[in-house]
Design brief:
The chain is 24% helix and 22% strand. By secondary structure, the protein is α/β, with parallel strands linked by helices. It has one domain: Rossmann fold. The structure holds adenosine-5'-triphosphate (ATP) and magnesium ion.
Length: 194
């Protein structure tokens, strides 16, 4: 199956989940992560706001805000083509809808950081494998944003952790030269460390 077919199939599967299943999954995801050392000692965390059937980060985000983490959301970079930067999110802060219909915190009054200023980035994805392979929506946003990891051996900057429903797991994805591997993926049921 090629990348396009796999994207289509997985997006259909995750969109078919009921509201109840989505809620249960997002609570499962929170349970998997809050007891894991991967969040310990990491202060600046980047989340995303779920769309298209993606697993919701809401319970985890609420927990992170309550425990004093600095939480950020991705914002389409105004100048650098197809790249993301990250703006601080606080409950009730002004938001603006981007061209994909996803809310972004307004960048004027909220502090923003470049990708390498974060400690942990939680990435949405369409499909994953247990070896760090990630297939996204096809825009290449995260790959471009973290492309510097190729040059610096992947050691510097935040840990990249994908979030997904368990049903988005595949045996093995064929990665392109530009694909940035993940340190792991957390689902509603397990944490896969690559
Ligand atoms: N570092 C880069 N520099 C320039 N172009 C890039 C880079 N990384 C990815 N791209 C381009 O982006 C396009 C989409 O990449 P890909 O199919 O891997 O998206 P994706 O990882 O599924 O998307 P996303 O990260 O937005 O969820 C590719 O055609 C590729 O040429
Ligand atoms: Mg990619």
């Amino acid at each position: 199956m090629d990348r396009q077919q796999l994207r289509k199939q997985m997006r259909l599967k995750r969109r078919a989940l009921s509201r109840k299943q989505q809620t249960t999954a997002s609570e499962g995801l929170k349970r998997v992560l809050i007891r894991n050392p991967i969040l310990l000692g990491r202060k600046r965390l980047a989340f995303y706001l779920a769309s298209d059937g993606e697993i919701s980060t809401q319970p985890l985000l609420k927990w992170a805000l309550a425990t004093g983490k600095e939480c950020y959301l991705p914002v389409l970079h105004p100048v650098r083509h197809n790249r993301l930067w990250f703006v601080r999110y606080r409950p009730g802060c002004p938001m603006k809808r981007n061209k994909y219909g996803i809310d972004e915190p307004c960048g004027v009054r909220n502090p923003r950081v470049p990708a390498w200023g974060l400690d942990l980035v939680l990435l949405p994805l369409v499909a994953f494998d247990p070896f760090g392979g990630r297939l996204g929506m096809g825009g290449g946003y995260y790959d471009r944003t973290f492309a510097y990891k190729h040059r610096r051996g992947g050691m510097k900057g935040p840990k990249l952790l994908g979030l997904a429903h368990e049903l988005q797991k595949t045996e093995r994805l064929e990665l392109a030269s530009w694909d940035i591997p993940l340190a792991g993926v957390a689902t509603d049921r397990s944490l896969y460390i690559s």
